[in-house]
Amino acid sequence: MPFVPHTSQDEELMLDAIGVESIEDLFDEIPPALRAGVLANTPAGISEQALLRLMSDRSKKDEVDLCFIGAGAYQHHIPSAVWDLVTRGEFMTAYTPYQAEASQGTLQLIYEFQTMITRLTAMEVANASVYDGASALAEAILMAVRANRKSKSRNVLVPGNLHPSYLSTCRNILHNQKINLQVIPYDQQSGCIKQEDLQAFEGEDFAALVIQYPNFFGGLEMADELTTWAHSQGQLVIGVVNPTALALLAPPGTWGDTGADIVVGEGQPLGIPVASGGPYLGFMCCKQAIVRQMPGRIIGKTLDLDGKVGFALTLQAREQHIRRAKATSNICTNQGLLVTAATIYMSLIGDQGLRSIASQSHNGTVQLIGKALEIKGITRRFTSPVFHEVVLELPCRASQVLQQMCTQGILGGYDLGQMDAALENCILVNVTETKTPQDIEDFITSLRAAVEVAAC
Amino acid sequence: MLIYEISSEGRSATAQYEACELENSELPTAQLRVSPIGLPAVSELQVVRHYTGLSKKNFSIDGEFYPLGSCTMKYNPRGALAGAHMPGFLARHPLAPENVSQGYLSCLYDLQEYLKDVTGMRAVSLTPMAGAQGEFAGVAMIRAYHDKAGDSERTEILIPNAAHGTNPATAVMCGYTVREVPVTKEGDVDVDALKAAVGPQTAGLMMTNPSTCGVFERKIQEIAEIVHDAGGLLYYDGANLNAILGKVKPGDMGFDVMHMNLHKTFATPHGGGGPGAGPVGVGKRLEPFVPTPIVGKRSTNGEDEYYWMSDKDIPDTIGNLSAFMGNAGILLRAFAYARLLGNQGMHRVGEYATLNANYMATKMAAAGFKLAYPNRRATHEFVVSMSQEAKELNVNAMDFAKRLLDYGYHAPTTYFPLLVPEALLIEPTETESKEELDGFIEAMTQILQEAKETPELVRSAPITTPVKRLDDVKAARELNLAWKAAD
Predict the structure, then answer these.
(1) Contact call for A85 and B48, based on CB within 8 A
(2) Residue A282 — left, alpha, or beta (φ > 0 → left; ψ -120 to 50 → alpha)?
């Protein structure tokens, strides 16, 4: 019996001890009409060998040579030590550190993670993570509505160039609590939010302004100006950031007059494979003054009975298992295992490594843009500077070109027509340090041929 | 020692990246970072040794018996991990086109089918990222259902007072108010109180069955009828699904919607507190509202083809709840587990989980511990009340829990359910052997002896762990959430 260790003798002894004849007798409180019959649509069990063959065969159908899609999930090199350590049973098969004395490994690691993330973002405090970047933003918006004492509003300003799945996730989670997301149209030329575009909202009561940096199109918003403007309007600022980009770019804690108030982002680039979209981790930071409004687990440093340093869950009075209906969120897990990966990743690569990875990604992107613009009919859709992702406008439907590239084993980018029909000729292309000059060359060759085949 | 305390400026794990500076950068100078990032500066070996050392400070399923009630800490098969970590799966981008995603999509489709089969539900969406998000999706669907019917008077969710804290927190996140329904001394929902509580304001009832009291709700059919007659819907919290896997289907009990915790019932690792996965299953009434994406199958030229179903296919969906497809890798592990077990193996899960719990309950009662529901059959878990020990010996449930750590056992869930004073909620799971269960009971018996003879020893436990009991008040009052060089 897979994973059930009982011998028939064990079973007999145990039934005797209980005083019943059979295991069936243990279900005698369940009304007979409810007893399940066979599981008709579940196949018979297979061995591990057969399972691995099956999954290997299936996974091979999904292999491609080169992937230039980013759009919120970025392929970076992951040092071998990261997942070797992460999959140690002591990390992988532990649970929530409720028994702190038996969980100091996980607790100290999360404290180290909180430290690293606050430093990367230049924020004061961080939590132990939430599910992913999109749900982190939904939680951040709820938090801002609670925390903004100057505003009575349940309206929040979000940019039109926010990741479309982040926007829909937020809408789907927040509309039940009557939170209204007001979308600011982005500037058609730069692809960014311009200060002029904000004037229409001046004097209105909004709880917060969301800034995605870089934005969904890879572009760099004028984060300083936007932050200062939002604060002048009594709004809190929520930054949605890419952690790799922060190695080179001004961290949100330093934006504008007093910095962003809440910062979230997708932690996937920090040592987590793209793996079909998860599990990833959403990181979440804020100013210390509003930490009691932050959802999720938070780890604090303290002392034990002997005065020895130790780590424990803290501020639990915010959480569902204590506060129930009055909790800051219903969340009860963090993404512990992914936090483990991100912490080990950040330790391994350090400042120098993260800067190098970010630089290499940016250099490759600039190189790819230069070569792509040499292809007849291809232009850059937006004028704003980018970090490691760019929108290219093709002389024909993006979907046709991408399909053609795919037949050569190259995923050439994300078809922006899926987000907005007005962008149906546009692709969003990402380059990271995993792409060699030859890879970029192969991309360009394939793109050129595909554009020609599409006969545009 | 923190990783920062072994950090030395100038040191680096240089094999892990290619040193690189910006060239032809288009990044505006005014936006460049001027301050250091502030990550540790350590060698590769230092990192490996540091985190190996930290891992050794954890209890885990791999290391210790972990009978944490309501958490289903069963063995996490390595084969499921290996299957999910196939290179083609790890490298698959979430936005890769369907034609180069057939392997992944077929696994998800199959998992949807298996979960429908074991729960008796009509449709399953795999996208919620944890039990709590599954609950959110479920209650949001209940709300969408009433909204669609124009039934805006239904503002209240009923919840038995034994429920998990996530239930009321979820109802509030969906814009509902919560009304609690009492539970009887025998652990059943008080049906008369329920009858009095339902009405035109009832949107639904959320419940767990078996309940958090570790007993099966015997009047579930009557409860379903009462709620349905009042126009409400029934939500099944799948936290305790392990107890009845292969034995009873929530769909047959009358539930309209449920979530499953794959990190419990389908043995995916808990990871030190996540990731989980909380798929939702729905019956006929809520089928139009399931969260996206879900995987569909069609036949083209005699070949199966799998595809994403989005809001175009499911116009009334409550929509997506994550950037991509939830905790995709966890879903692959659950698929692998389901294949390894097969239909027979699934029947055995509920059976042997129940056998183990009833065996432990019987033995513990014989050893002098007080069961909270002595007249009831235990399900996959059971509750012991330490109120007598607390009163007579001044040694409480937490003291017992902490002392267990010294004996090499993870503590059961303490002080939950809230209805039982000095509660220990014990869930052995089906993957533990009789020897392990006997060892735990023996340890509890010895601690009881210690509590009588040397109570101070038990009250000051644990003494063998990396730290002793921690000062939680200090942690909350003098918040220190990130390391600073001066610390």
Answers:
(1) yes
(2) beta
